[in-house]
Specification:
Blueprint (H helix, E strand, L loop, with lengths): L4 H6 L28 E8 L2 H20 L4 E8 L9 E9 L1 H17 L5 E9 L6 H23 L19 H11 L8 H20 L5 H31 L1
Antiparallel strand pairs: 1-3, 1-4, 2-3
Helix pairs in contact: 2-4, 6-7
Length: about 250
């Protein structure tokens, strides 16, 4: 598998739209949101990672449905940042595309109510100055994929009262069953297992490379942590190679 350097960097180098703001202040109820554009970000600051999930379940899920049913908006997207080591709080960023002024006007009372009930520490609307009409094909695909990912995430949260472990919910079982199983079946159901499954491996490897680049660029990590993780992965892959060769020999002798 060959990946061009530009493709690798493209998976991790954030565009202006992806830059995460820091802590923000709640706007006064009478303050108008200026500088209308076709893309605004609403930054919700909460206490921690657990509060992020509560906000997504209690507000983002319903807001997502409301925006999907509007004729003047599209592509609702959200991301969360509380697991970033540089953060001392939780943060959920909600993206609004379309007639952003109308959406903000309709949703703003709900944000004020969330803040008044202490389910939200702070919120702010950030105008990006971006017009959807200016997107090239790559940018449009990027945001459509993020929209699809947001929908899938909300479906998963709706399915589970408590999300399963990422890797393995049952440590004593012969094979692992965790959220990774969901990812595997999603890849299968969408048909991304061409070449006898090599496409799935290539897809996951590209995602892995992107995450390593991101870790390497993060001030709280850097190359030392990233290289250490790569060495750990190399050791595990070498051990896996040995096990697979042993498995093949055992099959040949039976």
């Amino acid at each position: 598998m060959k990946l061009r350097g530009s493709e690798l960097l493209g998976t991790v180098v954030a565009s202006v739209l992806d830059e995460r703001p820091g802590r923000h202040k709640i706007q006064d109820a009478g303050e108008k949101v200026a500088n209308m554009s076709e893309l605004k970000k609403v930054v919700f600051t909460v206490a921690d990672v657990e509060a992020e999930e509560r906000l997504i379940r209690e507000y983002v899920a319903s807001a997502f449905q409301r925006i999907e049913h509007r004729d003047d908006a599209q592509w609702p997207i959200f991301n969360r940042y509380g697991q970033d080591p540089s953060m001392d709080h939780g943060e959920v960023v909600f993206y609004i595309f379309g007639d952003t002024e109308a959406v903000v006007s309709d949703e703003r009372p709900r944000w004020d109510e969330l803040a008044a009930s202490n389910r939200l520490d702070e919120w702010e609307v950030v105008d990006t100055g971006v017009e959807i009409a200016d997107f090239d094909e790559r940018q449009r695909l990027q945001f459509r994929l993020r929209y699809a990912a947001s929908r899938m995430s909300l479906d998963c949260l709706d399915t589970f009262d408590s999300l399963p472990d990422a890797l393995d919910e049952f440590e004593d079982e012969v094979y692992t069953v965790g959220w990774g199983s969901c990812l595997h079946h999603l890849i299968n159901q969408l048909g991304y297992q061409a070449n006898g499954g090599e496409e799935e491996i290539d897809l996951l490897f590209q995602s892995l490379v992107g995450r390593l680049y991101a870790m390497n660029m993060a001030p709280s990590y850097g190359s030392g942590v990233t290289v250490s993780k790569i060495e750990e992965l190399k050791t595990e892959l070498d051990a896996l190679s040995t096990r697979l060769q042993e498995q093949e020999r055992d099959q040949q002798t039976t």
